[in-house]
Design a protein that fits this description.
Layout (H helix, E strand, L loop, with lengths): L13 E5 L2 E4 L4 E5 L1 H4 L8 H13 L10 H14 L5 E5 L2 H16 L3 E5 L8 H5 L16 E4 L4 H8 L4 E6 L2 E2 L5 E2 L2 H13 L3 E5 L23 E4 L10 E5 L18 H16 L2 H22 L3 E7 L2 E6 L4 H9 L3 E6 L3 E4 L7 H18 L1
Parallel strand pairs: 3-15, 5-6, 5-7, 7-10, 10-11
Antiparallel strand pairs: 1-2, 2-3, 4-12, 8-9, 11-12, 13-14, 14-16, 15-16
The structure holds pyridoxal-5'-phosphate.
Length: 381
């Protein structure tokens, strides 16, 4: 059987990881500023994570959601404290798309409405409702194009308010820092105005923190830079440091109903062990502060570089989520970074480099990256 060929691949077989590095099958080390698409939060193969996962696997890998799972309860308690949402409730699933899918369902159950406002260039996943709220017609299959969603420009509060005022909107869903959209930041006035308008017109505010959350922005959640408290918060990626997991944080205004949501694998024992180990390390190694400090440092070095590097037209982001706009397609530069400088980066659109390193990235690694990037720019001319 052949693999279903939907991914354009780098010709590299990654077989090992440690901290902010991965190695290929020939023993070549790569500096990882991609984090497997923002998934690696505490670093590859962190010893505490490996120990806790191994311990759990030797005890019990999986049992269903029909019995008490104290690991889920511990995770809810720990996460609530760490992120400042002690009074919220936690629903666990297996991916980011599923988190958004369930958040949108909750919003619809609560309001009885079916219309959603989403941002231009948003990415929320590839399942039915999640993909419908994603502003990319190429990945919305006809069966998912059900007319629930209106896309609106981010930071243009007036147009969002005008749509909300029609009184039929069930939810507004936003990424406070757009990832796939190219590291576009939501501003404070928009976020606060949108929260107030959602309240006024009876709509639910969902913050998709799947890429920008879990410490990456230098606060636990990116929306915490903006002084808002969404009704629903979706997370995935960094929560399990590579173990597939997603979650919805649900405000106390939502009352759970038996059977209304459910999943076979969500919140299984091994996933919870991963998420608990991630929180242990985030706390003991102060990774949220590190993301802010190292991110500020890297951003300053990149801005310095922008002053002399003609191909850089903008540098923006928060913490360890940084976009570099180029005046040329990113393809050649990224290929040079991977094959010659042995450095993984992400990208967005055709001309944006997207940096999403593990949250344990250091200033020395940032300096090292700057050298590699300078050499890559020199090589592509
Ligand atoms: C902001 C955002 N939301 C949702 C998703 C979907 O997550 P998953 O691929 O785990 O379904 C992603 C994935 O890249 C994302 O970046």
């Amino acid at each position: 059987m052949e693999l279903f060929d939907v991914y354009p691949l780098f010709d590299i077989n990654v077989v090992k990881g440690k901290g902010c590095s991965v190695w290929d099958d020939k023993g070549q080390e790569y500096l990882d500023l991609y984090g497997g698409h923002a998934v690696i939060s505490i670093g590859h193969c962190h010893p505490h994570y490996v120990e806790k996962m191994t311990e759990q696997l030797n005890a019990l890998g999986f049992y269903s959601n029909s019995v008490i799972n104290t690991l889920q309860r511990r995770l809810a308690e720990r996460l609530g404290k760490v992120c400042g949402y002690d009074d919220y409730q936690l629903f666990l699933i297996n991916s980011g798309a599923e988190a958004n899918e369930n958040a949108l369902k909750l919003a619809s159950f609560k309001t009885g409405r079916t219309r959603v406002l989403s941002a231009a260039k948003a990415f929320h996943g590839r399942t039915s409702l999640a993909v419908e709220t994603t502003d990319n017609p190429k990945i919305i299959a006809p069966i998912n194009a059900n007319g629930h969603v209106t896309y609106l420009p981010v930071n243009d509060l007036e147009v969002w308010e005008a749509e909300l005022a029609k009184g039929d909107v069930c939810a507004c869903i936003i990424e406070c820092i757009q990832g796939v959209g190219g590291i576009k930041l939501v501003d404070e006035d928009f976020a606060q105005g949108l929260q107030a308008a959602c309240k006024r017109y009876g709509a639910v505010l969902i913050c998709d923190e799947i890429q920008c959350g879990y410490g990456r922005s230098g606060k636990f959640f990116a929306h915490q830079w903006l002084g808002i408290r969404p009704d629903l918060i979706t997370v995935a990626k960094g929560i399990g440091n590579g173990f597939p997991m997603g979650a919805v944080l649900i405000s106390p205004d939502f009352k759970p109903v038996y059977g209304q949501l459910g999943t076979t694998f969500g919140g299984n024992h091994l996933a919870c062990a991963a998420a608990l180990a991630v929180l242990d390390v985030i706390e003991s190694e102060n990774l949220v502060d590190n993301a802010r400090e190292t991110g500020d440092y890297l951003m300053a070095r990149l801005k310095e570089m922008q002053a002399t590097e003609k191909h850089i037209t903008d540098v923006r982001g928060r913490g360890l989520m940084i976009g570099i706009d180029l005046d040329m397609p990113h393809k050649e530069l990224r290929q040079h970074l991977v094959y010659n400088e042995h450095c993984f980066t992400g990208c967005a659109s055709t001309n944006i480099l997207r940096l999403l390193p593990p949250l344990c990235f250091t200033k020395a690694m940032a300096d090292d990256f700057i050298l590699r990037l300078e050499r890559a720019f020199a090589a592509v001319g």
